[in-house]
Amino acid sequence: MESVLLLDNGSRRAAAVDSLRRLAETLGARCGLPIEPVSLAHADAIPADQLDGRPATLLEPLLEARLSAGARDFLILPLFFGPSAALTEAVPALVARLRTRYGDFALRLAPELCPLPTGEPLLTRILAEQLACLAEIAGDRPRRVILVDHGSPNPGVSAVRAWLAARLAERLGQVVELDQAVMERRPGAAYDFNGALLEQQLERLASSEPDTPVFLSMLFLAPGRHAGPGGDIAEICAQAEQAHAGLRVHVSALVGEHPLLPEILAARLRQRATHRRL
Predict the structure, then answer these.
(1) Domains of the chain (ranges plus CATH)?
(2) Cβ neighbours, 10 Å, residue 244
(3) How far apart are CA 8 and CA 3, in angstroms?
(4) Rounded to an integer, what distance in angstroms lies between the CA atom of residue 42 and that of residue 183?
(5) Coil, strand or helix: which one is 277?
(6) Which string of DSSP letters, residue by residue, matches 36-59?
(7) Which of 32, 65, 164, 194 is an S-S bond match for 185, by CB 3.0 to 4.6 Å?
(8) DSSP codes of every residue in 97-134
(9) Is 61 strand, coil or helix?
């Protein structure tokens, strides 16, 4: 029987593992299949007592255990927006190493959440609906929006954010000024494709018009070092508000908190012709 693995990059925050587990459970109930939540790295550093006594599962030891027990058929559903190095480099390298030790086995990789050039319109809808909910809570309509993500040295990943930004801008209309920002980028002009840092974008907007609120559209799947309570996005926003009297920054819910995300993953699961054998 094929093992279906919902794979994220991994986080050292228990909330991220909890989110992954909830999503796997929801997706499994929707599809009528057992979906196993696994991380590529980091999550094994979380003490089990922060995870209801169940340590997080990493991909490599899980595959080793299953292969040792005779399993030979796996499908990975990537919880990644774009073609991250985790999918294009780390997972293929892991599969190659395991084949030298355990012999041949079948591991297929489904497409990421927003495969270009087709993209994923449902992600645009998620971002727009999260902004609409935020506007209702804030009691104001968005006029300045920043679509912010982790940031990547991979142009293919940055292209996904740009694709979503263009579609979101179309959906919001010309009355909204939409910018992009990242939480991490490498120095130098060679990485300008990655975009400006969030603190730089907030400083620019606050300096020009501090009384107009800024709405952050969060292109993040789960809480972690950047997103969610205690993340550095909250800290950056608080610092910007403190530095500029009158500035208000409103932060949307995460993509992973929207009920349409399991629908996207269920579609990736069904689209077997798009699954790539590693």
Answers:
(1) 3-114+259-277 (3.40.50.1400), 121-257 (3.40.50.1400)
(2) 17
(3) 16
(4) 19
(5) strand
(6) EEEESSSGGGS-GGGTTT----BH
(7) 194
(8) HHHHHH---EEEE---SS-TTT--HHHHHHHHHHHHHH
(9) helix
How do the pLDDT tens digits run along the chain, 278 residues long? 799 999 999 999 999 999 999 999 999 999 999 999 999 999 999 999 999 999 999 999 999 999 999 999 999 999 999 999 999 999 999 999 999 999 999 999 999 999 999 999 999 999 999 999 999 999 999 999 999 999 998 899 999 999 999 999 999 999 999 999 999 888 888 888 888 999 999 999 999 888 999 999 999 999 988 998 889 999 999 999 999 999 999 999 999 999 999 999 999 999 999 999 99
Residue 179 is which amino acid?
D
What type of residue is 217?
A: S
